Amino acid sequence: MSQNPTKHTKVLIIGSGPAGYTAAVYAARAMLNPILVYGSEPGGQLTTTTDVENYPGFSEVIQGPWLMDQMKEQAKAVGTEMIEDHIGSVNLKCSPFEAIGDSGQKYTADSIIISTGAQARWLNIKSEQEFRGFGVSACATCDGFFFKDKEVAVVGGGNAAVEEAMFLTKFASKVKLIHRRDSLRAEKMLQKKLMENKKIEIIWDSVVEDVLGDKDPKNVKGIKIKNVKTNKIQELKLDGVFIAIGHDPATQLFKDQLKMDNEGYLITKPDSTETNVPGVYAAGDVKDKTFRQAVTAAGMGCMAALEAEKFLSH
What we know:
The chain has 7 helices and 19 strands. The protein is of the alpha/beta class.
């Protein structure tokens, strides 16, 4: 394969989604000619979220994938160069910064905006992985439809778990929410809605031990759960299991180069998107485990681009 010449840019944006695309819009409008490198699934987590009702500016429900397409086209229209590639390594110790794509392409940049996002976490039991896509899912909005009039479980206790459970009641006849503690972390208004929903039953103090099902054809028939206080094991008959126990930020790439917390989220300065390396910024779910909303990610993308512009002008 012939080696492409090095691509240089004032601003390299790694990752797409509300943070990356918004950063691109602002950087391009500041005449910085940004390059945005996106992976094989552009648009991030929003592309697995169908109904979006909380993104400002739309009184009607919009679709996540549509919103991401619009942001992408907007970033392109104002002058962002979009490249499909996967950044395999970065060097933040040299100037300009360097990044190498899996394509073999080398990128150099005067500043970098990291918006690589986060991915759903799994329970990591063997049976869960075996039945992934055959009744086990981490995305209710993607797969809820397949469980019309069936019984399902949601595992977790935060906002995501409660939202998934509520969403699934549109399709499923019964939703069991399984949480390892005796109280939910979700916000109060969501909890109230959850408790009022006749289709949802909460099973407290319990963890999933095993996913049960047929091997041929593959499909989920139930789960084995254990009560963490009594150690009592019971089997529940179910047709589907949705895992909603949190996310892992995509920060492997920056290990030993950027400061992160114990969960791997990038740490930025207060009221800023700047990392511990001047000229390198982090926006969206890659640094935010508190809000994790499209609108907050987009806001941080804007901040990162404005901070990068200021950095470059000095």
